[in-house]
């Protein structure tokens, strides 16, 4: 009887739904247009499988309601990013019907469990799939091989089992493959065995397959000269057999980690020809034979050959020729004879760790005159009979278990003969706040520091000394090029990179619990505190930070190497309670009631409501959308948070009635004046539109600049203080930049000069500002008018990008697509590909910035002698040896270290094809490397 009642209820439900759908689609075109795809229905099905979705996930139109983590383009859902949201549940098969998705990131949601559906293979437009640190299980679906556009695949730190599907080899555009820290088994797939395989991934730079249960031998066919591999991380598996000779055929390799397997046989001698390798980890295998001469690997910084079965050999003299070496580890290496003294003279050497348990003998001669970095020499359990030290002394010399430490020796009571265990642990200090504590105390979470109590949910923010809940996690560096953790400047360098790239102030980032684990991965606990005096992060901020870390937009300093981040759950102030219904009958009855209520309300009312909500969403996202000047009411400027609306009288007075002696610049838009705000004594720059520009175009640019600048905040973007709109005037009020623009210093008429280092610093600042616009603003912003006159300099020559009148909000996101727009910008700086396609993307800004870089190098105008600067430089480069002629004469007397790298980067930016240009974050990384080399 109950079953019959349920059947009747559900029949009524679906009948009503059909009537409603028919009426909406055929009788209400506006409502039908809003629902012209299945995306909303499919997303609702995905949502129904999740608990703790963000509170903004309400209503029937996700794109108009601005749901957290969602990007929509032309009614299609193109990006779903919900990292660190505390989601729980499973991933519904309906996710595979969101085939407009280009980016999917659900990282750091540990309670997302179960298998990932095979329907993910339907997402043919997907370019990035990132599911780090969740609880997913089961096999990796072979259908993922259908994702032909995929460039970034990271499924690390889950519980996936079974083999790596051979179909992964079909992802020929893939740049990163990270399946680390799962429970994968079976052999490494190659196309010769299974129809497809890893050998086909010729564009991949990263194979991160470490910490699984992979077995079998390493197929020789995986590696060949067409590959672009940089990192091969196969460590901590169960691989057997010999290391294939084909490793030596991949000249781009920089990191090789094969440690922690069961590999045997000799080390291939041709590995020594890989001149770009800076880290070689072959420890804890069964390798045999002699250790080959690896002196050709002159960039080696970290080498570990410990715990193998090598033949006895003399202590290797060639170690002393590795000028970049920081760390040498060769425990149980069958070494005999004296230790080469020149080893300790290497300029970068920090630690000689674990040369213990060999047969090294004679007097240990330590000459440290050439090394200022050496912190540790560990030679325990050898046959060393004496010690001779020349140069700087240090305390971390470990010789216990050698004859030199026998009870009758002179060294027996020295610290060098005391059996000590060096613990590699570090905690970076921050500003102290006295004895202040936070009264609300949550239970300690051991995820960062094992058994140590190292966090509470409420912590004292070291910047403000107020209580706040930080976003916490662990950075795991899988191939650092060092092993000494006492280098404070290195820790500060990491901290500064987090501040700069994640857009935090220095005091808001804290580093703790820095140590190596048993796999020699470097683990670092990180705490990021909310901005200002806020006690909590908002969800949008957590999503931004999580996305930057999960998608590797954050780039650590080079010596830290590749990383993975694991986040601790963040407990928001707005926890969402489950709204699931308790019984099938209750669900059926309430659903029928809701449908009938909608039908009774009338389809016309439904359509009107949908239209009203869409207009409201537009109004909220674009505060100037209705500012058209069509009526007295609409002429009133809207209120914009953080931006002041000035009267003409105020600005007239603070510039001494716009007198000539207050004039500091001019442009096509109008004049720029210096003024002092009387009420706060703040010096500002006021851009006043000339009368001829007060037409529709000028008004649109004026409003656009206020709208853009009101939503972005970055130290390398000029700050908008306020504006004036009225009395026939349009004026923008900015922070004052006393050193003018970059163009002022590159003009021969100015008589001003910039040294090489200052030019790099300015270029780096501007690049960081553009990177923020492209990758961190939500939605991303394309500047469209990048040029040297729009790069302003403060009193310390810090660069700030200005003039956002032509900027466009990009609904496509980073490296995903383009917009078709009309041609606007400054001749000479505009993307040449744009004029054939009229398709605008972030790469258009990259081209313009490349032109600026060439101006920095040459100090020439964009057009000189009837030729564009790009053609001028290209011509000089083709005429070998003529580049000095195009270099700014002022620079010719300097060494200009890094000049070639700077020039090459500039030429990549001005490639005619947008696809061949780098993204701005890559430009930032290159400039940081050049600047670091100057120190």
Provide key terms for this protein.
Phosphorylase Kinase, domain 1, single chain, Transferase(Phosphotransferase), domain 1, alpha/beta
Describe the structure.
It is a single chain. The chain is α/β, with parallel strands linked by helices and 935 residues long. Among the domains are: 425-567, no CATH class; 644-735, Phosphorylase Kinase, domain 1 (2-Layer Sandwich), CATH 3.30.200; 742-934, Transferase(Phosphotransferase), domain 1. The longest helix has 26 residues, at 2-27. The chain is globular, with a radius of gyration of 31 Å.
DSSP strand content:
15-25%
CATH level-3 fold name of the domain at 742-934: Transferase(Phosphotransferase), domain 1
Largest sheet: 15 strands, mixed
Level-1 CATH class name of the domain at 742-934: Mainly Alpha
Q: Structural class from helices and strands?
A: alpha/beta
List the helices and strands and how they pair.
Layout lengths: L1 H26 L1 H6 L4 H10 L1 E2 L10 H4 L4 E4 L2 E6 L6 E2 L13 E3 L5 E4 L13 E3 L4 E5 L12 E3 L4 E4 L13 E3 L4 E4 L4 H4 L11 E3 L4 E5 L13 E3 L4 E4 L13 E3 L4 E4 L13 E3 L4 E2 L14 E3 L8 E2 L12 E3 L5 E3 L13 E3 L5 E9 L8 E3 L4 E8 L6 E2 L26 E2 L32 E2 L6 E2 L2 E7 L10 H15 L6 E8 L5 E7 L10 H12 L12 E5 L16 H18 L1 H19 L22 E2 L2 H7 L8 E4 L3 E8 L4 E8 L6 H16 L8 E7 L2 E7 L6 H5 L9 H21 L4 E2 L8 E3 L5 E3 L6 E2 L9 E2 L13 H4 L1 E2 L1 H17 L4 E2 L2 E2 H10 L4 H4 L12 H11 L10 H15 L1
Parallel strand pairs: 3-5, 4-6, 5-7, 6-8, 7-9, 8-10, 9-11, 10-12, 11-13, 12-14, 13-15, 14-16, 15-17, 16-18, 17-19, 18-20, 19-21, 21-23, 22-24, 23-25, 24-26, 25-27, 26-28, 27-29, 37-41
Antiparallel strand pairs: 1-4, 2-3, 30-34, 31-32, 33-35, 33-36, 34-35, 38-39, 39-40, 40-42, 41-42, 43-46, 44-45, 47-48, 49-50
């Amino acid at each position: 009887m109950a079953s019959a009642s349920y059947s009747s209820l559900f029949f009524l439900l679906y009948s009503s739904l059909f009537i409603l759908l028919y009426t909406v689609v055929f009788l209400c075109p506006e409502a039908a247009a809003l629902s012209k795809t299945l995306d909303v229905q499919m997303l609702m099905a995905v949502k129904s499988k999740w608990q703790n979705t963000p509170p903004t996930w309400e209503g029937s139109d996700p794109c108009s309601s601005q749901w957290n983590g969602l990007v929509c383009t032309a009614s299609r859902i193109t990006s779903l990013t919900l990292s660190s949201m505390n989601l729980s549940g499973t991933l519904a098969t309906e996710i595979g019907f969101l085939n407009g998705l280009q980016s999917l990131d659900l990282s750091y949601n540990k309670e997302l469990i179960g298998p990932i559906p095979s329907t993910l293979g339907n997402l043919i437009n997907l370019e990035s799939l990132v599911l780090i640190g969740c609880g997913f299980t089961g096999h990796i679906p072979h259908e993922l091989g259908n994702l032909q556009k995929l460039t970034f695949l990271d499924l690390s730190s889950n519980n996936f089992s079974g083999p790596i599907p051979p179909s992964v080899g079909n992802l020929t555009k893939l740049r990163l493959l990270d399946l680390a820290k799962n429970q994968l088994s079976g052999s490494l797939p190659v196309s010769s065995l299974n129809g497809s395989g890893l050998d086909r991934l010729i564009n991949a730079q990263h194979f991160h397959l470490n910490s699984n249960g992979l077995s079998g031998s390493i197929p020789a066919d995986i590696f060949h000269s067409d590959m672009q591999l940089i990192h091969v991380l196969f460590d901590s598996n169960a691989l057997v057999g010999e290391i294939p000779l084909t490793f030596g055929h991949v000249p781009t390799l920089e990191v090789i980690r094969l440690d922690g397997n069961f590999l045997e046989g000799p080390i291939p001698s041709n590995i020594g020809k890989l001149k770009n390798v800076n880290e070689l980890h072959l420890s804890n295998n069964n390798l045999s034979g002699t250790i080959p001469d690896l002196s050709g690997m002159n960039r080696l910084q970290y080498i570990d050959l410990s715990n193998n079965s090598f033949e006895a050999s003399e202590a290797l003299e060639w170690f002393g020729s590795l000028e970049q070496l920081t760390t040498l580890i060769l425990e149980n290496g069958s070494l005999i004879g004296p230790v080469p003294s020149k080893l300790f003279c290497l300029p970068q050497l920090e630690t000689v760790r674990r040369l213990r348990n060999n047969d090294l003998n004679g007097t240990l001669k330590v000459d440290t005159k050439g090394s200022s970095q050496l912190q540790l020499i560990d030679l325990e359990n050898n046959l060393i009979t004496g010690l001779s030290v020349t140069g700087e002394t240090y305390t971390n010399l470990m010789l216990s278990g050698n004859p030199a430490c026998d009870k009758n020796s002179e060294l027996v009571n020295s610290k060098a003969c005391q059996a000590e265990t060096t613990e590699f642990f570090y905690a970076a200090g921050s500003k102290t706040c006295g004895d202040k504590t936070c009264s609300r105390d949550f239970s300690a979470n051991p995820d960062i520091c094992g058994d140590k109590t190292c966090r509470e949910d409420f912590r004292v923010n070291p910047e403000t000394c107020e209580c706040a809940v930080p976003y916490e996690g662990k950075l795991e560096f899988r191939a650092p090029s060092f092993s000494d953790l006492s280098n404070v400047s290195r820790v500060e360098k990491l901290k500064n990179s987090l501040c700069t790239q994640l857009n935090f102030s220095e005091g808001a980032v804290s580093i703790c619990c820095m140590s190596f684990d048993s796999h020699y991965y470097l683990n670092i606990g990180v705490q990021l505190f909310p901005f200002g005096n806020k006690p909590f992060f908002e969800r949008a901020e957590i999503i931004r930070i999580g996305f930057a870390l999960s998608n590797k937009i954050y780039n650590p300093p080079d010596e830290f190497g590749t990383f993975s981040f694991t986040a601790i759950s963040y407990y928001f102030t707005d926890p969402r309670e489950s709204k699931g219904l308790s019984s099938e009958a209750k669900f059926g009855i309430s659903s029928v009631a809701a449908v009938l209520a909608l039908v009774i309300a009338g389809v016309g009312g439904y359509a009107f409501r949908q239209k009203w909500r869409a207009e409201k969403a537009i109004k909220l996202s674009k505060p100037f959308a209705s500012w058209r000047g069509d009526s007295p009411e609409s002429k009133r400027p809207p209120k914009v948070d953080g931006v002041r609306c000035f009267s003409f009288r105020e600005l007239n007075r603070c510039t001494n009635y716009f007198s000539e002696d207050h004039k500091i610049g001019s442009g096509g838009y109008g004049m720029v004046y210096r003024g002092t705000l009387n009420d706060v004594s703040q010096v500002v720059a006021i851009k006043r539109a000339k009368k001829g520009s007060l037409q529709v175009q000028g008004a649109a640019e004026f409003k656009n600049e206020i709208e853009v600048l009101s939503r972005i905040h970055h130290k390398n973007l000029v700050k908008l203080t306020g504006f004036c709109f009225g009395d026939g005037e349009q004026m923008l009020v900015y922070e004052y930049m006393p050193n003018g623009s970059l163009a002022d210093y590159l003009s021969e008429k100015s008589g001003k000069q910039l040294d090489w280092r200052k030019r790099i610093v300015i270029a780096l600042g501007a690049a960081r500002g553009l990177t923020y616009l492209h990758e961190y603003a939500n939605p991303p912003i394309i500047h469209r008018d990048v040029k040297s006159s729009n790069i302003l300099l403060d009193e310390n020559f810090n660069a700030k990008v200005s003039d956002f009148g032509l900027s466009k909000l990009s609904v496509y996101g980073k490296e995903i697509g383009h917009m078709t727009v009309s041609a606007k910008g400054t001749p000479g700086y505009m993307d040449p590909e744009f004029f054939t396609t009229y398709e605008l993307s972030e790469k258009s800004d990259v081209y313009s910035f490349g032109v600026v870089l060439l101006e920095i190098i040459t100090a020439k105008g964009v057009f000189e002698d009837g030729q564009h600067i790009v053609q001028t430089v290209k011509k000089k480069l083709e005429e070998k040896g003529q580049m000095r002629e195009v270099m700014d004469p002022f620079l010719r007397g300097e060494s200009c270290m890094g000049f070639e790298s700077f020039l090459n980067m500039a030429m990549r930016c001005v490639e005619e094809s947008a696809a061949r240009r780098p993204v701005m974050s890559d430009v930032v990384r290159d400039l940081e490397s050049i600047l670091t080399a100057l120190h």
